[in-house]
Amino acid sequence: MSLSPETRRLIDELLASFPRPGRVGVDAVLLRSCLRERRVVGADVALVRDLTVPSPAGGVPVRLYHPAPDGPAAGCAVFLHGGGYVVGDLDTHDHVARLIAAESGAAVVSVDYRLAPEHRFPAAVEDAFTATRWVADHAADLGVDPARLAVVGDSAGGGLAAAVALLSREDGPELALQVLIYPVTDLTGYPVAEDTPYPSRITNGEGYFLTSAGMHWFARQYLADPADAEDFRASPIRAADLSGAPPALVVTADFDPLRDEGEAYARALAAAGVPATTVRVNGGLHGLFGLGALLPESRRAELPVVGALRGTIGPPRTAG
């Protein structure tokens, strides 16, 4: 499988215009500024409202997207954005949250968790879990059904979603589904060595926008101590026991350094008795989700996600 000309052109454009994490003079402030300039316009959603979740850290901003606020209580997806734990916010991923809400029929609560390096691990996990529990506790106020909740995340957000799914086994709420889009599941093994258990970190480690060197830089910003990479909240695949986690959909991309660890996590879930489905997007790359209007490969990532959410937590079926 090779990249389509359209995908190659997009990668070349991104490489030319986006600072490379880890290079001299590139820091979190510069990366955040450049990402905000590349905002994508999303679909219309009936109700969009900014809220704040109380937390010991002073409050977690969230944004509710409700496709049918006047109808029966909808299921809800708690969405955790990507960005290497360093960049991204409610606005940069607004189009993704809108897409999920508009096409799945479920409400979405997007979470603006604290970012590194100002707030290192486990701040992002704590915010993500706090927000998820808050959604369940305030379901009636949000117009959602607490019995139909899911966690969804892309990249670093996929790793956070996986961690929330594991934490929820003991401290609730019960989740119907976890959707992990090219997730970070293992922050160990950086810098990448030849004996890595994830060959895609080498074969896709350079030239496809996200690089393995960039992932190493993100990990250094996020982890307070390199030993934190062994904590399952940072590396869900390192959990001693994965049993009892909610069913999972794991989406990976052909030309992504994170491809193999995402698929390894799906296999580990299945080995623990957790229903797990893997969809690999042939010809796809990291960061493609939400760009369906530009790339056919992106649409091949979006359709299984919104389909799984619609079938699991989407609008209630009506009789007749």
UniProtKB/TrEMBL annotation:
GO terms for molecular function: hydrolase activity. Residues 78-288 form the Alpha/beta hydrolase fold-3 domain. Signal peptide: none annotated. Pfam families: Abhydrolase_3 (PF07859). This is Acetyl hydrolase. InterPro entries: AB_hydrolase_3, AB_hydrolase_fold, GDXG_lipolytic_enzyme. Keywords: Hydrolase. It comes from the Bacteria.
